[in-house]
Amino acid sequence: MRVKPKRIKYKLKRYNVDFRLMPGWNHKRIDPYNGRSNFKGIMLHHTAGVNSERYIAYGNPYAPVRAAHFLVTESGKVVVMSGSGAYHAGRGGPWRFPRRGRDVRIPKDRGNARLWGIEIESLGKTRRVGKNEFPEGMNTEQIVSTAFLCAALLNAGRWSWRSWPVSRVISHKMWAPGRKIDVKQDIEWWHQVIGIARRHAKKRPELAASQIRTFVAKHPKGRL
Ligand SMILES: [Zn+2]
User: Fold this and answer.
1) Residue 191 in contact with residue 166, Cβ under 8 Å?
2) Which value, to the nearest 10 degrees, does the dihedral of the CA atoms of residues 125, 78, 10, 111 take?
3) CA of 45 to the centre of ligand 1 (A)
4) Helix (H, G, I), strand (E, B) or coil at 174
5) pLDDT tens, residue by residue, 156-192
């Protein structure tokens, strides 16, 4: 669905996402698709570096187009890089989200304009997640924030009070196997933490965060 920057900002607030807006996040000149991105799901990435904020916004080869829609920093703060278009998925696909009635299809190489891209700051050297795993891996607060952000987007993308199912979240390596390795954790593991946020982030954010922390402590290797 076409989702305006204003709706994204509204949904992030409703889902208690801890965020700030990168200057220019809603400017027309950063959007290669002129507001015609048609979102169907979410893609998870790790940055494979640290302090990526300026690179994603200004330093990437396609700037002023941004290299992701969102960045989750070391502290867990979400930075909204673009409320409209961005480049992040690249070559890959096609992909199909099963749906009652008719499946949702994303054509080959069209991931950028169909999927929100979330970059999580981490070197991606280990799949392990925990309090002290950053920068080789991800820390727990990054997982909490990413799950809340996904919950907000799963709701923003569907045109009713309902949210998309967690299966609308995929990793970059699922889109481009062989070419990409991010993110390292199993997608089923991600679906579990995002599911917790989807259920509780809006009305009981403290409960959601504590349940996610407990889950991560129990499954620190990013698999079930
Ligand atoms: Zn990636």
Assistant:
1) yes
2) -30
3) 4
4) helix
5) 999 888 999 999 999 999 999 999 999 999 999 999 9
Contact 68, 81 (CB under 8 A): yes
- pLDDT tens per residue across span 81-96: 999 999 999 999 999 9
Yes or no: say if 44 and 9 are a contact pair by the CB < 8 Å rule: no
Q: Are 193 and 212 in contact (CB under 8 A)?
A: yes
Q: Which helix (H) or strand (E) holds 217?
A: helix 205-218
Please report the pLDDT score of residue 50 as a whole number: 96
The helix (H) or strand (E) run that includes residue 71 is: strand 70-72
The CA 129 to ligand 1 mean position distance, Å, reads 18
Ligand 1 centroid to Cα of residue 44, in Å, is 7
Distance (angstroms) between ligand 1 centre and the Cα of 7 equals 25
Tell me the per-residue pLDDT of 28-45, one tens digit each, with 9 for 90 and over. 999 999 999 999 999 999
**What per-residue confidence (pLDDT) applies to 71?**
98
Q: Is the dihedral of CA 171, 172, 177, 182 positive or negative?
A: negative
Pairing of β 19-21 and β 78-80: parallel
For the chain, the residue count is 224
Q: Strands 104-106, 115-120: parallel, antiparallel or unpaired by DSSP?
A: unpaired
**Ligand 1 centroid vs 204 CA: distance in angstroms?**
31
